[in-house]
Sequence to fold (229 residues):
Amino acid sequence: MTTPARVKMPSATSIVARSYPDHVIGIENRLPWRLRTDLALFKSRTVGHAIIMGRRTFESLGRPLPGRLNIVLSREPFPEQSNVQWARDVSTALLMADIYAICNLQRQFFVIGGERIYREFSDVINRVWLTEVFSGRINGDAKFDFEFSLNDWWSHSERDYPATDQDEYPFRITCWVRRKPQHRERFVDEFRSSDSEVLSKLNDWLALQTSNPMEDAVEQEQLSLFPKP
Ligand SMILES: NC(=O)c1ccc[n+]([C@@H]2O[C@H](COP(=O)([O-])OP(=O)(O)OC[C@H]3O[C@@H](n4cnc5c(N)ncnc54)[C@H](OP(=O)(O)O)[C@@H]3O)[C@@H](O)[C@H]2O)c1
Fold:
């Protein structure tokens, strides 16, 4: 197979949990609730993938999330570990996520917050797993105020979960899909200076896209992780 000069890059998906009706996502750099089922779903969706986050969110987690490449955005150099990479800006983070996805034959990567990072990546996100937490009014200092316009987004699937011993509030998970996906492309030459492994994997990755178009495959992969309550 001949490698084309320009190739379509992996798709970006966000995962976010916000309160209803105030759209709060955090307070004093932590989550304002305890929702173990939602966290378990977050884990099953993201394991094996690259996850992009802001420095404050990384600190709030307390440790790198295992089984994933943790790409941490900060303007200051950040201590790297085996599964943690520092990105100085948005384009560096996207390049790292693209390389990881291609090398691991993944069709997508995830943007996992917080407030500033969701805003800065909003133009490239094609899919959002939105958890609405029915907490009533709560205080917070970080929000996800994005409104999903039905002209640009459609609600692909939706499921309700009750409050339980494990989950402090009832919540609803909706998968929002951008009607016209933002297809990012790169010249293959961009990888020549950054990573040699990616060049060797590129043809396999492209073959995967040809056998099953990107958006369909992302959909199948993600919906299979949407278990019945
Ligand atoms: N409910 C949810 O789903 C969810 C998910 C994630 C996080 N959260 C919550 O959200 C809150 C954190 O959000 P936040 O907005 O305060 O912080 P954040 O988005 O996690 O991180 C912000 C930091 O990222 C770095 N950064 C941002 N844009 C950058 C750019 N273009 N280039 C380089 N670095 C950049 C900066 O780090 P430096 O200052 O080091 O330069 C900035 O201070 C916490 O309360 C957390 O618990 C909630």
User: Anything to note?
Assistant: Residues 52 and 94 are 8 Å apart (CA to CA). The helical segments are 36-46, 55-61, 90-103, 115-120, 189-194, 196-211, 214-223. DSSP finds seven helices and twelve strands in the chain.
